Amino acid sequence: MGDRSDKRAGLLYGFGAYGLWGILPLYWHLLESTPPAEVLAHRMVWSLPTALLLLVALRRWSWIRPLVRQPRKLGLVVLAAAAISLNWWLFIWAVSVGRVLECSLGYFINPLVSIAFGVLLLRERLRPAQWAAVAIGAVAVAVMSIGYGQVPWLSIALALCFALYGLIKKRLQMDGVDSFTAETAVQFLPALGFLVYLAVMGEGTFVSGGTGHALLLAVSGLVTAVPLIFFGSAAVRLPLSTIGLLQYLAPALMFVLGLFAFHEEMPPERWAGFVLVWIALCLLTWDALRTGHRTRTRLRAAAREAAECGAAARQPSGSSADGPADGSDASGTGSQAASAPCTKP
């Protein structure tokens, strides 16, 4: 019963995380009058106080001193902060210029880029279905490039930044809240310096934009942190296969917003590209679910075999009703037969 309630809570957290990420363009659209660089700087500055409040609430400070003593790990934190900063800026800029559908495409092709990174950088081996999915994704990009007369660079850049961020986080091996705090600490001073510069030059909008505008900018830290917290809560309660399916919710919501809320154009070549990417993702999802099912089946079979071996090992010699009364064969053929199932590889 507890496991079922945990999964239910995990699903709610997962839908909350990806749902909030999916409707985030609506929030950034409210700030379209502010230059994307300033919005990004406010997001970075206000994220650190939010992260520190989380650490106070969770009483988690022990990771800071060991991190400071590891230059290599600190370097990875800086790289992660740089990758996610570029991703944030591209996303905010794209919303401000009415290119939400390209953002949606970028996050749809992100799993395919992550797989390509695994092959090229981590020397991972792909299954045939994964190769087919990556090939279909490449064809989708080619179709849109030919149709538009240019490569969909924004979608590719967003996918590359986020896939690189995920790769660095994999190497970093830090908890979500801890790494979020470390990354925002790296971002804080440069962002604060930029905002001070804008204020001195009279180009900042935090004060001149009015109280409502200032509140929107200040809330950007909370908007950044809440989905991350929800995602962390979902990740510890749900299997990776479920998380993998939920991740498509965010770009799907962005697609709906771009099409119906922001009324962006959807010419035939863009439809063709999206359909091909969706086919690739369906193939990828089917392969992941099938592989996960096979793995669980093998694990259950191994667990049953181990239980049978354990039961056979605990059975006292000569206890079988069919065995000889004097137990003369108990240490011979009988014990060999009992141990036989345990000799399987």
From TrEMBL:
Residues 310-345 are annotated as: Disordered. The chain crosses the membrane at residues 12-31, 43-62, 74-93, 105-122, 129-146, 152-168, 180-200, 212-231, 238-259, 271-289. Its main location: membrane. It comes from the Bacteria. It is a multi-pass membrane protein. It is found in: Cell membrane. InterPro entries: EamA_dom (IPR000620), EmrE-like (IPR037185), RarD (IPR004626). The keyword Cell membrane applies. Residues 9-145, 154-285 form the EamA domain. Keywords: Cell membrane, Membrane, Transmembrane, Transmembrane helix, Transport. Pfam families: EamA. NCBIfam families: rarD. Belongs to the EamA transporter family. This is EamA family transporter RarD. It comes from Streptomyces ovatisporus.
